[in-house]
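Blinded run. Sample ID left blank on purpose so nobody reads anything into the name before looking at the predicted structure. Input follows.
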Amino acid sequence: MLKKLILSALALSLTNCLILNPLGATIDREKGSEAAGRITDAAIQTDLINSTLLSGRASISILSLIAGDIAKIESEKYYIKADVDKCVEDIRGFKGFLVGSLITNIISCQDINSDGYLIGEPFPSL
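Blinded prediction complete.
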């Protein structure tokens, strides 16, 4: 009984991404649609703050509305949450204020690693 339990746990850990990514149950992964939404929200907030401080009027760039596409985020794939968090922090932080959300997006968000559709980092993406 204990042997079956250990083998089951080992099999589950080896196929973690294959089983849990589609369910959205992995802790350190984030679905692409959520990641793109967070990046877009950060770009819009940064544009609003920058425009209000610089010109006195709140406005957003059309490019901030497609920030997820600029970052090359695919909605059906899964991304490493720490990479997405770093990108969002850069857009909302000093770098985003200094050079703007678009350039920060291009600099900080282009190297976000995806885990593919079903399988994770050790395996090739589908």
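Unblinding after everyone has recorded impressions. The mean pLDDT is 79.
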